[in-house]
Inverse folding.
């Protein structure tokens, strides 16, 4: 951020009075421009023990498989956002159920919320951001070709719980470890 | 938003190609400035069946009682944010436990996450944003002087669950009804 979105003047980076973090502050009108994490909301679309995944048609991670999810929009609830993303990415209709994973991804300032969502029918197919959309049983999941660690963790816990016959909310943090490789550490809370 | 925070030029409001919502787009450098909901994270600090509330020293709702909570910051997890807010507003240390309420507040583009948090000791007191900090049993809760509907709903369910002896995640939407009065409709999911 270089300029004030209110008045167009330059911003400077400093700790406002009474605060303890540097913020972007307009040198002219004095507005403080806070920057906060974004919420990504999505579904685990379920059908007879299988889960619907989308192969990404867009970067990042084009060609890799993911759960339908995207940024929560202003004016909508997390469940509405999960439903919308599932329609947009997989042309699929789910009944949005309970929250299943809540993960903080502090290295990219995102909060992931994934809800369980029984599919209402098998009439699905790729939206513009997907190359293909397919149901997978646990044995069929393309573990090496998943787009994001948060999806891998969610599916790992999901199928564990499916085998146990009882689902419970998994909440925690996924941190990216330093280095060039995609390596992560997951810490569950509770 | 009037100006581009990247280059300082004017922004216009229109629907970008491939999108379906109006966004602020820079007329010069073309950057799309998305605006998304913010996450508010906080605690229900617990001690022997009582809950710690803070009386707000700042607007909005100065003088009214609330749970310690505030905007999630970049680089922190939701649990870390809940812990930080509890220290800042109540000078209290909790062990952040399971998520208890997840409410969408679409009329103000906020997502509230409140975690149960057993107090580690009774050494608490008002931070700069609080006038006073006090433990309340269910009978003592100042129901008419709570700052926010999301706090009232959370405490209502909390004490219901306390009486039942079993806590479970409450997730849903709190909508503000049209009109001048503070009237709301809460819809629980699941
Ligand atoms: Zn300004
Ligand atoms: Zn620009």
């Amino acid at each position: 951020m270089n300029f004030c979105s209110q008045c167009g003047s330059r911003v400077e980076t400093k700790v406002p009075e009474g605060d303890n973090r540097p913020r972007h502050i307009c040198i002219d009108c004095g507005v403080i421009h806070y920057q906060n994490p974004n919420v990504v909301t999505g579904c685990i679309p379920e059908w007879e023990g299988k889960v619907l995944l989308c192969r990404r048609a867009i970067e990042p991670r084009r060609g890799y498989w993911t759960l339908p999810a995207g940024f929560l929009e202003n004016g909508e609830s997390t469940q509405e956002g999960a439903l919308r993303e599932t329609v947009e990415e997989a042309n699929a209709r789910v009944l949005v159920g309970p929250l299943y994973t809540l993960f903080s991804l502090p290295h990219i300032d995102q909060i992931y919320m994934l809800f369980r969502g029984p599919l209402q029918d098998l009439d699905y197919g790729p939206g513009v951001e997907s190359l293909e959309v397919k149901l997978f049983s646990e044995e069929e999941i393309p573990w090496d070709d998943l787009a994001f660690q948060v999806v891998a963790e969610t599916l790992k816990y999901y199928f564990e719980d499916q085998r146990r016959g009882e689902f419970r909310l998994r909440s925690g943090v996924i941190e990216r470890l330093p280095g060039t490789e995609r390596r992560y550490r997951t810490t569950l809370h509770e």
Summary: Chain A has two domains: 1-35, 38-188. Helices of chain A lie at 78-90, 149-164.
